Amino acid sequence: SRAMKLADYQAPGFSVSDIYLEFDLQDEQTRVTAISQVQRVDSAIRDLELDGKKLILEGLWINGTQTEVSLTEQGIRLTEVPDQFELRIETLIDPVNNHALEGLYKSGGAFCTQCEAQGFRRITYFLDRPDVMARYRVKVIADKQDCPYLLANGNLIDSGDAEQGRHWALWEDPFPKPCYLFALVAGDFDKLEDQFTTHSGRQVELQLFVDKGNVSRGQHALDSLKKAMAWDEQKYGLEYDLDIYMIVAVDFFNMGAMENKGLNIFNSKYVLADAASATDQDYFNIESVIAHEYFHNWTGNRVTCRDWFQLSLKEGLTVFRDQQFSADMASAAIVRINQVRVMREHQFAEDSGPMAHPIRPAEVMEMNNFYSVTVYDKGAEVIRMLHTLLGEQGFRKGMDCYISRHDGQAVTCDDFVQAMEDANQRDLSLFRGWYSQSGTPVISVDCEWDESTQQLRLDLTQKTPPTADQAEKQPLHIPVAIEVVPVSGQGEGRSEVLSLTGQQQRFTFENISAEPAVALLTGFSAPVKVDYQSTPGHQLAVILYASDPVARWDACQQLVSDAIFTIAQNDARTVPDFPIELFAGLLEQAQTEPALIAEMLELPSFETLAQQRDRIDVDALLGARKQLKTLLAEKFSAQWQRLFIQLSNPQYDYQQQQVERRRLSGVCLSYLACTEASLDILRQAYKHSDNMTDTLAVLKACQAENLPLFDELMQDFEQRWHDDPLVMDKWFALHAGRQHPGCLSTLQLLMSHGRYSINNPNRVRSVMGTFAFYNTEGFHRRDGSGYRFLTDYLLELDAVNPQVAARLITPMIQYAKLDENRQQKIRLQLLRLFEHKSLSRDLYEKVQKAL
Ligand code: HT7
Ligand code: ZN
């Protein structure tokens, strides 16, 4: 397998203006007829090469004449085709045996499709690239009883009955689109319906399709859709453009959801919710994913990507938009803190590992591997920096320019930045480096306050360490937001955004009359690390007096991290005093800002801690974190208990104030579980819970502390929920994440459970994903058995679903910080994979880079 390079991009030699597709749906043998109107656009290109994968070619006709084709590595070649012609292709495909879940497949009883990034080539031979945009007409034919609903993109034109109990529907999408946005669904569902009237007064039919019996769980998704539609009009002046918007929930899906034009297909996990079965986090995620896919209608569909290297053009921008939306719907501070966690726990790790790549990758072997936290989340951070640099209005001007200039086109990240530049008359040439450079910049800070001159001097230095893909790094344009607060708490603070453009730069602040504490990177204004030796006293001042909640949380995390590292390093195992003083204060304030304080009381995760050092001692770090947790639990046991009781809610409602109280109450429980006298509290909390959030908080607390009560409650939970796959995923994940000596046999048991299936990505992620990503102790067992266990499973999974396998390997390729023994044990397993003869391209790319 060879890598494709961005630098080798060539415009397509042919265009397709219109395509008619006919699907005669059958489980193992679906006939696809594709009739395309093809035009040559580059007279130098004589042959037409089409992509195709796992297709049986039944026949091919050019202007009605059957034609021979030659096979290529990617598909077929038609030699010396006319300048303009009608191309008819008949292929056979096998949806029921398609477990890779790309192209046309069956999810439960329903036919559905997933074409992004390169799945359309599993449906018919085509120019499977996003810069070929065509108008689609689609006829779907299927059994009337099994598939009462026949759906495709756009508007329903006609429908009717056919022979042998079959029926058909004809759909037309008026907007030209790349084939990755094509979709078809045929099956039996329950349907929720609603309407939305756009700003300009057009009426849009909203339809949500869910598995039979799930209507009551669909309302939140539908409400979220209406909120997203209204928000995009109000915030960006963007209206929906078709008369119908359909969302279908399916159980078998490789990712979260897919923005197919007018026909979104969703992982049911991001649609279905009610109080009994879904957590507050589930409700939040549904709202955000529904919005994300909706926002793609403009950022992705109407304006699409020229090639897949430009993926962040639509994904980074759309994640930024869904983050803005979530911040408006819920608590902006908490939403932001959780994004920062994603960046530090996952993106920084990717950017310092073997798969490091810029948000616009320069080289790709398997495109599916680049739907990454870098392209999505760092991509969103890059858009956010533009927003910070240009301001709310400037950013909106840039968006307006981008959309109006490129509507209906397939464009590049450069086109986006150009629109931002042109609309604001700003030079963003240095900023463009964010698109081509990988790695996490480190900003070192030297800070001095001179009482006599009342000057505060900040010397900032930026340096990006070399990454696996790029040895040389250039300075970037980094917006560094700061807040200066008086250590005493008396007097005004100051907030500013510094523009760091050079490798080293000095910033001076006048009239700082009282000793200042400096909060750097407030709001996480750039995806960078900060190296700044602050003192506990200054950190405390930031926590107490800064106006930016993210900075306050961050200072808190830093203080606690420092304590954990101190414990991990010293043999005497004494705990520094400052976290104890801090927690005493936080607990006293808890009721005043429950949401923020809950986040502050949460100890930094192992993954976040790991990102702060070049080398980590897994056992010492886990031990130190645990020691601090127990100490804080015991020291404040009365306070945890009191607070927990004060936080009880009336009947469940997904409403901000309740959400915040539940979050804090969950944190209390997690500490209470570390103390002796907590069994009764936990048992009562489980028994009286009327919602999944509180129930799961109890189970998690018991799991983290390995309490015998865990098994008892889990049995009860299983009995209640064994018929509900999405809830069982929570049960699977709780078991798989439990850190105890017998965890590998637990995993084995889980995978032989009646509700487990290797064919369902949600089940696989609940069990093996939770184990590999979050069961730190079990996965990193010193004897290497955790790594071997994952590898054995990957070998099996790769043959079924390579996309999911390639995601699961992530924790095993990010091993550079581990001790030599563990590194060696990991390499041994990577070699096993490497030598496996039929390894997928997805896994091959990652394994090869990791070795
Ligand atoms: N744009 C969608 C990406 C996606 C996807 C990619 C590869 C394989 C399967 C997939 N399912 C969905 C999702 C999104 O970002 O909105
Ligand atoms: Zn997306």
Q: In order across it, which strands form the biggest sheet? A: 6-5-9-3-2-12-15-14
- Care to count the β-strands? 31
Structural class: alpha+beta
Measure the end-to-end span.
Answer: 17 Å
| DSSP helix fraction | 40-55%
The chain-level mean pLDDT equals: 97
Q: Which of globular, elongated, flat, extended, rod-shaped describes the shape?
A: globular
Hetero compounds: (3S)-3-amino-4-(1H-indol-3-yl)butanoic acid, zinc ion
Instruction: Specify the number of helices.
Output: 27
Rg to the nearest angstrom?
A: 28 Å
> What can be said about the biggest beta sheet?
8 strands, mixed
SSE map:
Elements: E1 4-5, E2 14-24, E3 30-40, E4 48-51, E5 56-62, E6 65-66, E7 70-71, E8 75-78, E9 84-93, E10 103-107, E11 110-114, E12 133-143, E13 149-152, E14 155-161, E15 166-178, E16 184-187, E17 190-197, E18 203-210, H1 219-236, E19 244-250, E20 257-258, E21 263-267, H2 280-295, E22 304-305, H3 311-329, H4 332-351, E23 363-364, H5 373-406, E24 410-411, H6 413-424, H7 433-436, E25 442-450, E26 455-463, E27 478-486, E28 494-500, E29 504-509, E30 516-520, E31 529-531, H8 536-545, H9 549-569, H10 578-589, H11 594-601, H12 606-610, H13 618-635, H14 637-646, H15 656-672, H16 679-688, H17 692-704, H18 708-721, H19 725-736, H20 743-751, H21 761-774, H22 776-779, H23 785-800, H24 802-808, H25 810-813, H26 820-835, H27 841-850
Parallel strand pairs: 2-12, 18-19, 19-21, 22-24, 25-31
Antiparallel strand pairs: 1-23, 2-3, 3-9, 4-8, 5-6, 5-9, 7-8, 10-11, 11-16, 12-15, 13-16, 14-15, 17-18, 20-21, 25-26, 26-29, 27-28, 27-30
Helix pairs in contact: 1-2, 2-3, 3-4, 3-5, 4-5, 5-6, 8-9, 9-11, 9-13, 10-11, 11-15, 14-15, 15-17, 16-17, 18-19, 19-21, 23-24, 23-26, 24-27, 26-27
This protein binds (3S)-3-amino-4-(1H-indol-3-yl)butanoic acid and zinc ion (ZN).
